[in-house]
Q: What sequence folds into this?
């Protein structure tokens, strides 16, 4: 019998519900149970792929090519396992399926309604996702905040699941904020009390409440939350601010959350082993050296736009025993003269050219790339980063004036980056890019090969454009070379030889999505290692 843990959120969004969900999943996984996590997003988009990062944060790409919510990234990184498209359910998918069934006449003349048809479809998608992952326990996070209109059908569906599969097979955990009043320093539980009341009005009585607070919950706050939340005090858990997100499972575990959950679900208690995670956290805290890395992109005002890249840098930092300090560089500000490339970049020890779409900020990135290349600063280009590094080399080394990607300048005389053949003629944007993991063959003797230590690697993709095969001979030479191809001959990695530059490499893929604390990305590890050497040299 599958067990379900449903996580709802209260008071505010962005209180760390995704990390709490990932942490609970981790705690249970660490006891040898097979767990999976599902994120529900109550928006009407079918997936996150068509959304601007400013709206939604990073679009996380799964192995099977799903364009998902960034919480899937948290789940994968905490659980150290791959999830798929099916782990992210949206209102768009639910309605899409219901409307298709209606058109096919599957509802046999019935009037199609939110209850039972939409709620039935939600339950089917949740159950399918957990079954597909072969999990004993499914942790389901309902996005948004209790009380949102669009979240109601999902809350109704999980309420029904409890009735169907029974009290002992379901658990409701509510995560909410306890703000601290600045003037008095007091922990205020009233907003959380209200969101619990709202949940109960819908028919859901939480079994556990996790209170997010800047400081550890005091006894009085716990008592109040328990009383008004109608639950025992030992089911009120304090989740206070931490230095590293991987500490959250440890904090929850210190309050016996794992045993309490298993007990509530009637599962046998088992020994837990979180030593790997604990060691990672301890190592991070012990680091006393820093290295400054520039992140160059156009969504730098919302850090969540590049969440996996930031995480990948941290993982690589721990393996190199150094803390990466990020210097955000807004490429549109380089373009409009607000930032001076030399001033911004001369003091950094390394740089990442961030992924991106569209013309805005691209020329700013190209200027930064030229500076990094000419000044021997370790540089890693990701996806759009690779494309612009090729454009920069074509223009400034190969003399191809106005060389460009046709995405940015359709009339360029040198279309060194062009739309992939398979993309031509597509008229739909959603889910049509080259998405997901593909095999890459690395060339022996290259930096890429040395970093990965193997010939065949799989990285995830999300792009429409690529290095134009017609320009390969004109651009690549003894210094700038192709270091990896896809099985069908597409350019996947480029680099400068290490005779020319200490570390200058780019990939058409997104290695950040596979970086984990338990297995940091080789490219990010290499970047931090090179950046550290540069620092020592200076
Ligand atoms: N805009 C580029 C393309 O579609 C790069 C995409 C990206 O950086 N993810 O190919």
A:
């Amino acid at each position: 019998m599958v067990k379900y843990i449903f996580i709802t959120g209260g008071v505010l969004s962005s209180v760390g519900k995704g990390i709490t969900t990932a942490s609970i999943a981790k705690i249970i996984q660490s006891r040898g149970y097979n767990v999976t996590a599902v994120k529900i997003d109550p928006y009407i988009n079918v997936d996150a792929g068509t959304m601007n990062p400013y709206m939604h944060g990073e679009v996380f790409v799964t192995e099977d090519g799903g364009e998902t919510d960034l919480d899937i990234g948290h789940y994968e990184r905490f659980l150290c396992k791959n999830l798929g498209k099916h782990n992210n359910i949206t209102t768009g998918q639910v309605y899409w399926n219901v409307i298709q069934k209606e058109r096919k006449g599957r509802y046999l003349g019935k009037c199609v309604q939110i209850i039972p048809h939409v709620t039935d479809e939600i339950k089917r998608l949740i159950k399918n996702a957990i079954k597909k992952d072969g999990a004993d326990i499914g942790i389901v996070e309902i996005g948004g905040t209790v009380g949102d209109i669009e979240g109601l059908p999902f809350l109704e569906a999980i309420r029904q699941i409890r009735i169907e599969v029974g009290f002992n097979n379901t658990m409701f955990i509510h995560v909410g904020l306890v703000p601290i009043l600045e003037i008095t320093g007091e922990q205020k539980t009233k907003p959380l009390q209200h969101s619990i009341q709202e949940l109960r009005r819908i028919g859901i009585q939480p079994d556990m409440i996790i209170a997010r607070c800047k400081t550890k919950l005091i006894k009085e706050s716990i008592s109040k939350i328990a009383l008004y939340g109608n639950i025992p005090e030992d089911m009120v858990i304090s989740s206070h601010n931490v230095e590293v997100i991987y500490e959250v499972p440890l904090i929850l575990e210190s309050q016996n959350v794992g045993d309490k959950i298993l007990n509530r679900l009637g599962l046998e208690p088992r020994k837990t082993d979180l030593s790997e995670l604990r060691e990672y956290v301890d190592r991070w805290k012990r680091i006393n050296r820093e290295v400054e890395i520039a992140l160059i992109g156009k969504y730098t005002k919302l850090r969540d736009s590049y969440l996996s890249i930031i995480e990948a840098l941290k993982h690589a930092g721990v393996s190199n025993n150094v803390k990466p300090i990020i210097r955000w560089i807004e490429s549109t500000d380089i373009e409009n003269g607000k930032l001076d490339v030399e001033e911004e970049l001369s003091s950094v020890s390394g740089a990442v050219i961030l992924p991106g779409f569209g013309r805005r900020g691209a020329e700013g990135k190209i200027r930064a790339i030229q500076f990094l290349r000419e000044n021997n600063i370790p540089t890693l280009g990701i996806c759009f980063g690779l494309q612009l590094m090729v454009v920069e080399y074509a223009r400034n080394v190969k003399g191809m004036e106005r060389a460009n990607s046709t995405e940015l300048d359709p009339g360029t005389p040198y279309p060194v980056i062009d739309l992939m053949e398979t993309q031509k003629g597509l008229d739909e944007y959603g889910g049509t890019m080259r998405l997901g993991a593909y095999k890459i063959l690395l060339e022996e003797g290259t930096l890429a090969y040395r970093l990965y230590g193997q010939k065949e690697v799989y990285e995830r993709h999300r792009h429409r454009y690529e290095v134009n095969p017609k320009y390969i001979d004109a651009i690549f030479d003894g210094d700038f070379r192709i270091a990896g191809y896809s099985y069908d001959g597409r350019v996947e990695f480029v680099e400068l030889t290490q005779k020319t530059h200490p570390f200058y490499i780019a990939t058409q893929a997104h290695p950040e999505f596979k970086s984990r604390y338990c297995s940091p990305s080789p490219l990010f590890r290499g970047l931090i290692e090179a950046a550290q050497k540069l620092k020592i040299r200076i």
Remarks:
- The chain has two domains: 3-279, 289-537.
- The first helix runs from residue 17 to 29.
- The two ends are 61 Å apart (CA to CA).
